[in-house]
User: Fold these one by one.
Assistant:
Number 1:
Amino acid sequence: MPRKYSDEIFEQKFWEKVDKTSDASGCWLWTGYKHRQGYGYVSWNYKMTLTHIVAYLLMGNTILDGFDLAHSGNCKGKPHCCNPEHLTPKTRRENCLDRHRDQTFIQAKLNSEQVLEIRRRLALGETHKDIAKEFGVCRATISMISSGKNWNHL
């Protein structure tokens, strides 16, 4: 399947959708399509990719295998920030712990029944890693449920 645009045209069109001037904290805000969680997405190399990742890579940076890009504190409430200076490569665990600390994680990803099932499996000795993978959450979420820091009302 041929590409719709050359790399140069893609990059030009991409940066046209980034507002580098309107945010007082220096965030470069994606003005194109955003997912319901607020993250920008764009079709890049035949797949939907988070715009902050695209921006980081287009600026000549690399992301090692096993690392995510974490937004800085400047970006709280602005997951569509594309400023590479506001992004830091971190392990998935570090990124999840940061999101829990800053309360920028999506709490509604699990419902009460799922949390009770997670607790049942934890009691049976299943690993946090296996449970997190099955439910599509990070291990820190399972740890918070296990320790009673989240969902302690159940």
Number 2:
Amino acid sequence: MSPDVAPIYLDHAATTPVDPRVARRIADVLALPLGNAAAVHAPGLAAHQLVEVSRAQVASLIGAAPEDILFTSGATESNNLAITGTARLAAQRGARPHLVTLATEHKSVLEPVRALQAQGMTASILRPESSGLLDPQALAAALRPETVLVSLLHVNNETGVAQDIPALAAICAARGVALHVDCCQSAGKLPLSLQDVALLSFTAHKLGGPQGVGALYVSPAHRGRLAPQMLGGGHERGLRAGTLAVHQIAGFGLAAELACVQREAESRRLAGLRDQLWEGLSQLPGALLNGHATARAPHILNVSFQDIEGESLFAALPELVLSTGSACNSRSAEPSFVLRALGRDTELAQGSLRFSLGRTTTEADIKTAIAAVQRAHASLRAHCPAQPLPLGGWVTDPPAQLWVGEGGARRLGAWVRFVVLERDSLVQEARVQVYGCPHTVAASRHVARQLTGQRLGGEVSATGLQPGLPEQWLQAVNGPVEKLGRMLHIEDAIRTLQRSPWPSR
């Protein structure tokens, strides 16, 4: 891709670009002579008025009353306050709290739950069906007399699967259990109902608003069951201490208002683009849709490809900005825990691509994305283990000899096969088939070039080839030291080179 051409942004589930109207609103508020919104002088009252206008805008997005909205620093804080605040207050009142959540939740839900378990509380972490949906009967069976909270994502941030919240909420209500719903990916995109919902988290930066500000809806019935986790003042009805960031809250308010107005039309548009994207990608060999086919949000598509190493596919798409999983986990080499919970093996879970669309996404972007993935997929698949030996164009008449050597294994994250054409004990050409990360691919191709022209020994076990050392190969492709183990698979493939009969035609 030309450095002058901006890549196509398809990572809206991680964060959305700030709407220009919202950016102007934030700048205008920053320019005002405002005081602390908790103060009673004129500048403070002006700030307070801006906050309350924004609170009403944010409340309207989810159909809540303004007084039931608390401003936070984002959905992570909202989730922590909802879960930890509920559990700790119940414990303080003498209960032995039990929590219920799903194995595919965001880490800002799972980690507070695990922290509470470490403090002696109990939790049931349920597994979804292979579609990603939670079986309502499984939820009902998990509830106990001591259950104080169920915490669920409305829309999964990796797969886009949308839970049937009204049905699940009704189960919780029938048993007198509070339900917390994380609506980061659904607020402004799907209809929301607060019926039987005690707590609801969402954030500005998924709506075209600024990062660093979010909200927690607290139902009137649950307000007395929530303990503050940030102490230091009576802000936000005593449930969240700290000076309010008026400019961010004003941006959040406008972003919520715009999302509310545009929701139905924009959701239809995004669903059409998502379906067009899947139609193009589904034609590729080995393409697998992750998550339920229909119960999902309009803007997220998660796809895995069999026989394709995910990191290499991701690296082969410089013209696209997307994710290999949730944004909070994208710097980790670990496979997606969400996809593993849906039954995908490690290879497919590591190799998933998440496309997430937004207001800036156009039909032309989708067509470009399909073409880019098709090109990268074809290039990588041509050299994958499932393909036959790459002998095209070689003259196989004597004295031509074929040598083949393999190293590594796909379960180890790297597999390499060298295919060598020998004439008169010299390597005429070496070709490589490889499954692995971009550094493994690049180093394997580098070594194949180094092999050309070298002399092969007469014995199968002593080829005499000297294409360099693993450390040198890694340096040649600017690889990090932690990839050195992958270079050893390349070395093994060279060491195991043996004469092989030409395949029958």
